[in-house]
Amino acid sequence: MFQPPLESTAMKLSKCVRYAPNKLSINNSDAVNEIYGFNKNMAKPEEAYAAFRVNKHAINTFNTSSKEAHRRKRRIMAKGFSDVALATYDIGGKGEKLVKSFHQRAVRIYMTSQVPLFKKLYIDRVLFPQMAKANTALADYARSYTVQRAHQHREEINRIDETETYSHVKSGNNNTSSDIMHHLLNAHDEETTSVYSNNELLGEAILLMMAGSDTTSTALTATLFYLFHNPHALQSLRSELAHIFSYSTSIRVLAVENCKYLRACIDEAMRLCPPAPTALPRVVCEGGIEVLGIHFPEGVCLGVSNFALFRNELYFKEPHRFMPERWLDNDEDSLSLARMAFKPFSVGPRHCIGQRLAIQEMAYIVAKIVYHFEFEVVGTDSEYKGLGVDENVVMEQFDVFTSLERGPEINFWAR
After folding, report:
1. Residue 299: domain span
2. Which strand (E) or helix (H) includes residue 405?
3. Residue 363: how many CB atoms within 10 A of its CB?
4. In what order do the strands lie in the sheet with 16-20?
5. How many domains is the chain built from?
């Protein structure tokens, strides 16, 4: 499904569209908090999220419909995204690997062919660098999943020492940079003292690979796509990077958080091409709920489509235009209105727990690529621009619960 027709329907008909019996998509920023916020009389519909389980026992933080189970799982998962944990992840090493890989490639590349590389780098360098070396059933499953997604890029990343095992991670004797699984294997819920079971670990591992690699690669591809097609924005970003960083080696993960225009470019790309474009369904619980002053009875499914909301002209001036400057606007009213609607990582108890890690890695990788390379879009690139809206380029995006994209094809060379 290509998203613009859905967005167009939502904008033309009303702020509330019934897309199936008893299921509605609402295009309003207030509805985001009223549906997904804390202490709302809403739940995840079991029949929808059960489809995301690799087996009936591999219930994870994302696909559980039980609020109590989710609270316990998330308390354990939080250990893998604490400040202490984030400091141990090899984001910098991943960026260096990516730049090196680009240097070794031909001068013309099809950008979306790099998406598996983005995913593979995320999985191997941040999520599971030790998993790739493990000799366990969970590692075997994770490796097979990774190979299915990005087999052709395996040799370009890390050479794996097959003699090592994952046991040193679980025992806490890891002398290298850590990974998320290291923290999850050693974490417990402080309220119940329970730990993840093997099936839970499997479920969480697959969740992290999908939610982490798919969404991050979408945001990276979209950011580069819109920068390629907006030379003024690319030049403004290069000017900011040159002002802050004297050398490539001075670009550090924490330092790029100070690059305001860089963050604006990433936010604007995620607005136009949200990594999770579709409406995440919630079902009304017993007693009903009021959303936007409308009463919805038990059993009705509600949701807000990021794709539609992020292109709503009530919240964004020239909504189809790539304009990073909107996030640096001196007009506080316009900026506040935009930020109220822009929630790419969702809100409430189910918001993305890996938000900070995602922003760190995206900012670092975009900074490295833009700093190192010059770019030129090949031809008109019309095949990858989708339908276009109001003469603005639109990156073609397919809704598969997360997102699939195509293009662009570019020439690039070292600066």
Report:
1. 3-414
2. strand 404-405
3. 25
4. 16-20, 23-26, 301-303, 282-284, 42-43
5. 1
Looking at residue 163, its amino acid is: T
Count CB-CB contacts under 10 A for residue 147. Answer: 12
Q: In this predicted model, what pLDDT tens digit does every residue of 190-217 receive, in sequence order?
A: 999 999 988 888 888 878 877 777 778 8
β-bridge partners, 176: none
pTM of the model as a whole: 0.82
Q: How many CB atoms lie within 10 A of CB 206?
A: 21
pLDDT digits 0-9 by tens, 299-348: 999 999 999 999 999 999 999 999 999 999 888 899 999 999 999 999 99
Residue-wise DSSP of 314-326: TTSSSTTS--GGG
Record the tokens describing residue 43, joined without a space. 């739940």
Look up residue 345 and give its two tokens: 């990582």
Is 407 exposed, middle or buried, given 0-12, 13-18 or 19+ CB atoms closer than 10 A?
buried
| Domain CATH code at residue 240 | 1.10.630.10
Residue 367 has pLDDT above 50, yes or no: yes
Q: What is the mean pLDDT of residues 11-33?
A: 86
352 assigned ligand-binding residue: yes
